[in-house]
Amino acid sequence: MGRRPQPEIKKRLLDACTDYALEHGLPDRLEPLASAAGTSTRMLIYHFGTRDVLLRAVLEHARQRQLITFGDLLRVRPDQPYTATLANAWRFITGPEGQPYLGMFGQWRESAAQQLLPDFRRMATTNWLGPLEKGLSSIDRPELATLVLAVIRGLLMDLDATADSTRTDRAFSGFLSTLDQQIVPNR
């Protein structure tokens, strides 16, 4: 008779594999994940079934972490204008704390991992519309969520392609200034 599943071990392995993938990217082989988790590839397969199931779980877990972290950054804060919240979120997302997520999910189009989560690109867009609409509702402009998201995504692609953070930071700041100017008449 085989062992019973041990969810606490599986969770620990998933956390360690996700940490590795966020720092180094999704590996082609299981050995780096096993090493990072302090186990063997055989044990990873035992707990997850197949390589693809493990990689899918790692991607989903990293995405869940990103949604929680970035979602919190986008929530309304009563003590600050929402454009200041967006500015702080931009600094975090493009800074050292956000880089692992941008690195993992930013290269999605060129990645073989796209087959693991084929609907990811759509979800990666639509997941952010709700938090942005809610935040922009605080300034009576929820209809701008798609525009704000498009600007953020476009500037993130620009930053990824050029590594020119000064220029993209300045562009986002300019966008927020324009947004502030549009909001004043509606207050």
Layout of secondary structure:
Elements: H1 7-24, H2 31-37, H3 41-48, H4 51-74, H5 82-94, H6 99-106, H7 120-137, H8 145-162, H9 165-183
What would your notes on this structure say?
It contains 9 helices and no strands. With 187 residues, the protein is mainly α. Helix 1 packs across helix 2, helix 1 crosses helix 4 and helix 8 (145-162) packs antiparallel against helix 9. The mean pLDDT is 89.
Question: What descriptive keywords fit this protein?
Answer:
187 residues; 71% helix; Tetracycline Repressor, domain 2
Radius of gyration equals 19 Å
Within the CATH hierarchy, at the fold level, what is the topology? Tetracycline Repressor, domain 2
**CATH H-tier superfamily:** Tetracycline Repressor, domain 2
Shape: elongated
- Give the second-level CATH assignment, the architecture: Orthogonal Bundle
Q: Structural class from helices and strands?
A: mainly alpha
Regions with pLDDT < 50 over 5+ consecutive residues?
Answer: none
Number of helices: 9
Number of strands: 0
Number of domains: 1
- Main sheet specs: none
Residue fraction in strands: under 5%
Mean pLDDT: 89
InterPro entries: Homeodomain-like_sf, HTH_TetR
Protein name: AcrR family transcriptional regulator
Domain HTH tetR-type: 7-66
Keywords: DNA-binding
